[in-house]
Amino acid sequence: LSNKEINRAALAxxxxxxxxxxxxxxxxxxxxxKAGEALVFDLDTFAIKSxxxxxxxxxxxxxxxxxxxxxxLLDRVINQAIDxxxxxDVPVATxxxxxxDSSLITALAAKRNPDINAFSLGFRDTRFDESGxxxxxxxxxxxxxxxxxxxxxxFLDVIxxxxxxxxxxxxxPSAVMLYKIAQFARDKGFKVVLSxxxxxxxxxxxxxxxxxxxxxxxxxxxxFIGLLPLFVKTAFPAKTRHVHYLKQLTTDPHYYGTGMIVExxxxxxxxxxxNGTAFPKVATFSDALLFDQENRLPDDLLTRTDRATMxxxxxxxxxxxxxxxxxxxxxxxxxxxxxxxxxxxxxxxYSEASVPYDNLYRPKVGFDLPLxxxxxxxxxxxxxxxxxxxxQGDYLHKPALQKMxxxxxxxxxxxxxxxxxxxxxxxxxxxxxxxx
Length: 436
Prior knowledge:
Helix content: 40-55%
Shape: globular
Number of helices: 21
Number of strands: 9
Distance between the termini: 8 Å
Strand content: 5-15%
Radius of gyration: 22 Å
Largest sheet: 5 strands, parallel
C-alpha cells in the first residue's frame, strides 16, 4: 500500500501544467503508465517484467500547403470519423459548447441523424452565458437542444465529492460542470455523447499557440528590449501572464504546454525545494502541437473527460482523435493552421459550410466557468478556509500562495486557475489519505 508521501517533483508539475506528467502521480510511490505504453507483470514473482511503448511516436510531415487540398482532405476524414463514432446500440447525443469543434461535430452528426440531441451548459448570470451560440447551431441544424443552467451553487454542490472522482488530480474546473452535463444527458436517457476534444491540439486552437508562434517569429527583435519584462514585473507585479509572455518575446522562447497555471518564473517562489521542472525543448510551432498531443491530451484533457463522464455512467467519444484524422491534421502545413492571426484557420474554413459564422470566429470559450467572480463572491470562503488550514505549507511557500489569493480577491489579477488547483489538491490529498 502507498505511504501517501507527496512527490515534490510531481507537485511542481501539477502547479505548472494543472496535471502530473506520467509516470509521476501526486504520491511518490505510485506511478502510472504513459500513453501508448504496456506493462508486463509476472504472476509467479509478483514483479514487473517490462514496460514498453507499443504505440509509435507521432510525427508531422506538414506537406499540404494548398488550402483547397487541405479542405478536401478534412471533409473526407472528419466525415469518416463522425460515421464511425455514431455507431451504437443506444441513443447518441453531442456535448455542445457553441465553439468551433463541438459545433462542427454536432452539425455533421445532425446531417446523418436528424433526431440527434445536443447538450449545453448555460449560466444564469447573463454576462457569462453563451448558450445562445449553441442554440443558433441547433436551430440551423434543426435538432433538439437541452441547456443546463448553472451557477456557483451547482458547482459547490459537487466539489466536496470531486477529489474522489478525479483521483489523481487534474485541475480543470470545467470538469465539474462536464460531469453535471453528462449527468443531465444520462437523465434524459442517453448513454453516449460525442465531444470535440483534440481539435485544438491538432489544428492550433489555443491562444498559447499564437503567442508561442509570435515569440518564435520575433525573438531576435525582442532581444533588443530585454529589460521590458523587468519593467512590467516592477510596475505591474500582479500581471504575471503579461510578464511571462514578455519573457518569451525577449529571450529564447520555451514552451510549457497549453495547460500552464503557475508561470515558470514564479514556480520556485511557490514550491519549496524546486527551482523549476524539466521540460523538453520545443523548437517549432509544429513541435508544440505534438508536445500537447503526447502530454496534455492523455495527462489532462482525456483523463478529465473520461472521469467526469464515466462518473455519470456516460461514454464520451472523441471523433477528432481518430488516428487517421490525426494523421491528416499532421500533414497540413502550419501556415494553414494559423493564418492572418486566425487560429485553427483551416478547420474554421472547412466548417463555414456547416456552422454559423459567429460560432467560428468569436473568442474561444469552451465549457469555461466564471470562476474568477465566484471565488470573489459565493465561493470566497471555500478558498480562504482551505488556505487557512492547508497541509501544503510543508511543500509550498505559504506567503506566495497567500499573495495569489490576495491579488485575486482584490481584483489585481485573475488567479482563479491557480486557486482552483490549490483547493482541488488540498481536498484530494486529504480524502485519499483517509483510504487505507
